[in-house]
Amino acid sequence: MVASLGEDSGYVPYTSFSARKSYLEKNGDTVQAFTDALQKGMDYVQSHTPAEIAEVIAPQFAETDMGTLTTIVERYYNQNTWKEDLIFEESSFDLLQNILEDSGVLEKRVPYADLVTKEFAQKAAR
């Protein structure tokens, strides 16, 4: 490995979930339960070793031997790839839009406040 794009670029939210405002308003309890479950996974990663994490995820990567899987998880762990919470910060949103804009995928930037709600992630992080 020559360099880590993750380390050099900053935190890029490579996974996010979308829902209409109307769904969030009508199904807030469901959204909160989903977010709480994701946060529980984040908490697990923060409180366990790479070897323990590799053992848990091994069934999803049956074709990968445990040594390789542990090495991969260690790399993510040492790069501090996993945040402690799910809060989608504005700086990360801007970085993501920069990447999409530079690659020609994004034609028009969108205001952070128009697309992102942090309330569910903030509650789950408490």
Could you walk me through the main structural features you see in this protein, from its secondary elements to its overall organization?
The radius of gyration is 17 Å and the shape is globular. Helix content is 60%, strand content 0%. It has helices at residues 5-9, 21-26, 28-47, 50-57, 66-78, 90-102, 112-115, 119-125. 6% of the residues are buried. The protein is mostly helical. It has eight helices and no strands. The longest helix has 20 residues, at 28-47. Helix 3 (28-47) crosses helix 8 (119-125) and helix 4 packs across helix 5.
Ordered list of secondary-structure elements with their pairings:
Blueprint (H helix, E strand, L loop, with lengths): L4 H5 L11 H6 L1 H20 L2 H8 L8 H13 L11 H13 L9 H4 L3 H7 L1
Helix pairs in contact: 3-8, 4-5
